[in-house]
Amino acid sequence: MSKPLLGQMMDMPLNVSMLLTHAARSAGDTEIVSRRIEGDIHRYTYRDCERRARQLAQALIRRGVQAGERIATLAWNGYRHLEAYYGTTGFGAVCHTINPRLFPEQITYIINHADDRYVLFDTTFAPLVAALAPHCPNVKAWIALADDVHMPSIDAPLLGYEMLLAAEDGDFEWPILDERLASYLCYTSGTTGNPKGALYSHRSVVLHAYAAAMPDAMGLSARDSVLPVVPMFHVNAWGIPHAAPMAGAKLVFPGKDLDGKSLFDLMEAERVTYSAGVPTVWMGLLAHVRSIGARFTSLERTVIGGSCCPPSMLREFEEEYGVRTIHAWGMTEMSPLGTLARLNWEQMQRPLEERRRLLDKQGTAVFGVEMKIVGSDGRELPHDGVAFGDLYVRGPWVIERYFEGTDSPLVDGWFPTGDVATIDRDGFLQITDRSKDVIKSGGEWISSSDVENVAVAHPDVAEAACIACPHPKWGERPLLVVVRRPTGLALTREALLAFYEGKVGKWWIPDDVVFVDELPHTATGKLLKVKLRDMFRGHVLSSVQEGATNV
Length: 551
Ligand code: ADP
What we know:
Helix content: 25-40%
Organism: Trinickia fusca
Pfam family, one: AMP-binding
Domain AMP-binding enzyme C-terminal: 451-526
Number of domains: 2
GO molecular function, one term: ligase activity, forming carbon-sulfur bonds
Protein name: Fatty-acid--CoA ligase
Bound molecules: adenosine-5'-diphosphate
Strand order of the largest sheet: 2-1-11-10-12-13-14-15-16
Number of strands: 25
C-alpha cells in the first residue's frame, strides 16, 4: 500500500486571538462604540481594544491564572466584555459567560460547576454578586468592570478592572495554542433540570466565525456598523464578537438598555446598518418606531432568531421599513449557528408567495452543518417539507459532550437537537416545535409555533403562546394564551378564533383562548412554556365544558 501523501501547507492552529489581532492590524481605526452603564457613550478602536485585552491577559497571568482555568463574566454587551472575551481566551484561559437573568441558585450552581477562578462583573450586578459570593468559595476574587470612582461597596473579595489594567504595559504576545483547546464555556438556560455546559474550542469558534461572516450567512462586512442586541452572555452573541473583528466591521454595544427607544436612538446615532436579536426585542423596537411614526435611516439588515419569528414581524420590517430580515435557527450546543433563510438566484425568480413561504422558514444549513430528520422508528425521513421528525445535526462546531458530562449525547455521531422539524426539497428547515412542546391531538401533531404565528398576525395581538391542554377525547388540544395590544383590548375569543378560519387546518384551531397581561419568558426572552403549562394546569377547555371541539 502506498504511503498517504500529506498536504504541504502550514499547519497553523486556528486561535481566537487571531481574530482581534487581525482587526487591530487591518481595521485598526475602526470604532467600537458602547453605551456604558456609567451612562455615557464610550468610543475607541480595535487597536485600543487589542492592547487592553493584552493588559487583561497580563493581569490575570500575574494573579496566577493558568491555561484551561475558567474566568467568568456577568456583563452586558460592552467594550470591557469584549476585552474579557479576548484577554482570557488569548492566553489559553476559558471565558465562561454567565447569563445574569438566570435564578441566583442556577448561577451559583453554574459558577461552582465550572469552577470559576475569577468573575468579571458589570456593577449593575453588584447586589447579585453580594448574594452569590458566600456560596462560591472557589472564586478568588470578583472583578468589577469599573474604574476606582465607580467601584461598588459590597461584602465580597473585590478587585477593580481598570486598576488591574493600569498596572500592566500591554507588552505581551499571544501564545500559539493547540486549536483543540477550550476557549468558551456557555451553559444552556436549563428550563428543565440543571444547566449544562457547552465547551467550545478555539478551532470551533474560528470556523464558526468564518461561516457566520459569509455573505449568505449572517453576512458581515467591513462596511457595516453592527449592533448586537443578542447578549454576549448568551451563546457568544451568536458569534458576532468574532465575526465582526474578522470582517473589520464597526461594533456598537447597547449596554443594559434594550427597550425600543434606547435601541432606536443608538441605531440612528451610530448609523447602524446591521443588527441581531430575538423576536421579543424586535417587538419592543417596532412598537416604539410605530408609536412615534419614525423610519430607520441606516438599518439595512437584521438577523432574527432564538425563537420562531412570526411572519407578520418579517413583513413589517421588510414592507413597512425596508429592512431586510434574516430568520435564523441555532442553539447553544451549536455555537449557535445552524440555518439561515436566504434565497438563491433561482429561488429569487419564483412568485412572491413562494419566496415568502421559504423566507418564513428557518432556512438552509450554513456550510459546515449537516442536518437530518428522523421518525419515531429511528429511520431518516424524506426532505419533502411535509414529513416531520426529530432533528439531528453534526459539524465542527456542534457539541460532542457536555462539560464534565460522562455520557455522550450523540446518537451514531449525530446530536439530537430536541427540536421537531421538516426539511423541504430546497433544503429549508422549518421548526415545528421543541419536542416537549408539540401538541398531540388524536394521534396527529399540531405545531404550536404555527398556531402562534396566526395569532400574532392579528392586529390586536401583541404576543401569543399555544400550549397543550388535556382533552378527554383527543388526548390534547391547543389552548391559546394571548396578550392584546394596548389598542386592541376589545378583541374577543370568538373574533380571534374566527381569524383562524382558512389559515390553518380546522383541527389546528385552538379550542380556547385566554387573555393575560403578560406571558412568562425564559432568561433569554423565549416563551417559558413549562411555566405556562403550570399556570394552566387545571384549565378546563371551553370545548370540554361545552362538550364540543373544533375538530
Ligand atoms: P436554551 O436552550 O438555553 O433555551 P438556545 O439558544 O440554545 O437556548 O435555544 C435553542 C433552541 O431555541 C432551539 O433548539 C430551538 O428550539 C429554539 N430556536 C432557536 N431559533 C429558533 C427559530 N428561528 N425558530 C424556532 N425555534 C428556534
